[in-house]
Amino acid sequence: MKKTPLFDRHVALGARMVDYAGWNMPVQYAGIKEEIAAVRKKTGIFDVSHMGEIRVSGQGAGEFLNWLLTRRVTGKKPDQITYAILSAADGGTVDDLLVYTMGEEDYMLVVNAANKDKDLVHIRESLNSYQTAFKDRQPAIAIVDESDLYGQIAVQGPGSLDCMLEAAGRLGLDKEQEEKLKGLKRFHEMTVELEGEDRNMIISRTGYTGENGYELYVPASRTAAFWDIFIEAGVEPCGLGSRDTLRLEAGMPLYGHEMSPDINALEGGMSFFVDLDHEFQGMVMKDKVTRRQLALVSDTKAIPREGYEVHVQGKKAGVITSGTFSPTLDKGIAFALVDLDTPEAEKVEVLVRKNLQPFSVVQPPFVGK
Amino acid sequence: MEGLKFSKTHEWVKVEGDEATVGLTDFAQKELGDIVYAEPEPVGTHVEVEDIIGTVESVKAASDLFAPVSGEIVEANEEIGDEPEMINQAPWDTWFVKIRMADPSELDELLDKDAYDAFCEEEGA
């Protein structure tokens, strides 16, 4: 198993460790309920160093990425971050990711740890397809795996800005950068030069919890020192267990569940992030929508789990793609994928062990707005 | 914990006459993490060894409890569903079901405390 720069810290904190996508990662420290409460009420930190960073740069990079992804990356402000889906030619999902603009024709794609190697192959093969399809364009694009250069810490919760400002000096921010951080908008980023490092730290106002938060892309060798700053300030360390429940509470999808090679972005509830008015690889997905997504909340104590059947008006309509107990709501919550022709209904049933249990259909997010 | 017997699926068994009271061990509750749901099988259920006698769920996963002995469930702890966190807080005092045993010799197949502790050490490794 691979180790992030924070491995020793997790062990020292007594974390329960697990193999996640080939990485030795903390699944919990104090406990999932406590960690979720910390993020919803104060601040929590996550080691997300296992995420992949793929640099795509060179002449024509922007135009290539526009074609590669469900949304354009060009025409945005230079500090703006784009969430988009990477699709196969048949419309199936390869990954979901964030695109950071690093400079002119210079982009960093932040991808799921489990998919990084596959994504690299896909992007390189797609570039070949692209060059064949658009012979008049002459891109000169480099695709570089920069994952090992960065560690990554996510700081999440209503207290996260205060927490970041407290730590700002020790994180290498000057007064001007502190002001910039205060004014940083969601899905925007800023860079901080670190003394003695040839790579800048990137701070983005992004996250996977639904709370306010910041993600720090730190030159790998500085990650542990920066983690220590937050721990010493009393921020709660949080693992992958709480992370998965927090993202589901926030109504956010997870590759492999809501989207997959078999579930395209439109079926995965991501139509807001699919711009059908531009040409992109996999746009055939618009003709391959046979299912739709529902968000469900339990009407009883029953907890929905991935794979459980969903019945609507007495007929099997689909399955749960992600399900959990939400400690914040004190209820079971889930995403489900049902056939497109399923009748609209406010109430459905989920087969939990041998009994059909009542669930209400809601508009996501489950927690927050 | 005196006189308790244990199964390899981490249930504890307390025997009184021909009745076996069953709960989850401390090892099991630690493995499961915060328990948020618990439901015993209903009174009247006839079980063979390793049949399901209840379900617990943590935030992330569902897990079954298995009958350490065969017999009939004569009592089920109805209150456990309202306070599932008691399984984490007091595993030895929180019971799931009482089984009227069909064959008390099945108790000989279960582990005593030392054997169970050794079993847990191997599992944890």
Give the H and E element order of chain B.
EEEHEEEEEHEH
> Major sheet of chain A: size, sense and barrel closure?
6 strands, mixed
CATH structural fold name of chain B: OB fold (Dihydrolipoamide Acetyltransferase, E2P)
Alpha carbon gyration radius of chain B: 13 Å
CATH architectural designation of the domain at 7-51 and 149-249 in chain A = 2-Layer Sandwich
Strands of the biggest beta sheet of chain A: in what spatial order? 10-11-12-9-3-13
Strand content of chain A: 25-35%
> Can you count the beta strands of chain A?
19
Question: In total, how many beta strands of chain B?
Answer: 9
Helix amount of chain A: 10-25%
| Uncertain segments of chain B | none
Rg from alpha-carbon coordinates of chain A = 21 Å
- Overall pLDDT confidence of chain A: 97
Alpha-beta classification of chain A: alpha+beta
How many helices of chain A does DSSP assign?
8
What would you note in describing this structure?
Chain A has 369 residues and is α+β, with helices and mostly antiparallel strands. Chain A is built from eight helices and 19 strands. Chain A has helices at 7-12, 32-41, 61-68, 116-133, 160-167, 175-183, 223-232, 240-249; strands spanning 16-20, 23-28, 44-47, 52-59, 81-87, 93-103, 106-111, 140-145, 150-156, 189-192, 201-204, 213-219, 236-238, 291-298, 309-312, 315-326, 331-339, 347-352, 355-362. In chain A, the strands form four sheets. Chain A has a six-stranded mixed β-sheet with strand order 10-11-12-9-3-13. The longest helix of chain A has 18 residues, at 116-133. Chain A starts with 6 loop residues before the first helix and ends in a 7-residue tail after the last strand. The relative contact order of chain A is 0.15. With 125 residues, chain B is α+β, with helices and mostly antiparallel strands. Chain B has one domain: RNA polymerase II/Efflux pump adaptor protein, barrel-sandwich hybrid domain (OB fold (Dihydrolipoamide Acetyltransferase, E2P)), CATH 2.40.50. Helix content of chain B is 19%, strand content 38%. Chain B has helices at residues 26-32, 85-89, 113-124; strands at residues 5-6, 11-16, 19-24, 35-40, 46-47, 52-58, 62-66, 71-76, 95-101. The mean pLDDT of chain B is 95.
